[in-house]
Specification:
- The N and C termini lie far apart (102 Å).
- The chain is mainly α.
- It has one helix and no strands.
- The chain is 80% helix and 0% strand.
- This is Protein SlyX homolog.
Length: 70
């Protein structure tokens, strides 16, 4: 086989290996980001529920009436 062709083939194989490794690393990063997003979404929902519960506990039917001096 021609040495130039062998070198070209070796370069292509090296590039392919590099791209495969990068794709695997990016897949791992995307997976970790998905887990973080899921965790933050659940945390946000819990916080929203707590705020709504606190607002409900603070609000009372008397809040809708005018003050006694009217």
């Amino acid at each position: 086989m021609d040495p130039a062709l062998e070198q070209r083939l070796a370069d292509l194989e090296s590039r392919l290996a590099h791209h495969e490794r990068m794709a695997e690393e990016m897949s791992e990063v995307i997976f970790a980001q998905g887990q973080t997003i899921d965790r933050l979404t659940a945390q946000l929902k819990r916080m929203r529920d707590r705020v709504e519960a606190a607002e409900y506990a603070i609000a009372s039917p008397q809040d809708d009436r005018p003050p006694p001096h009217y």
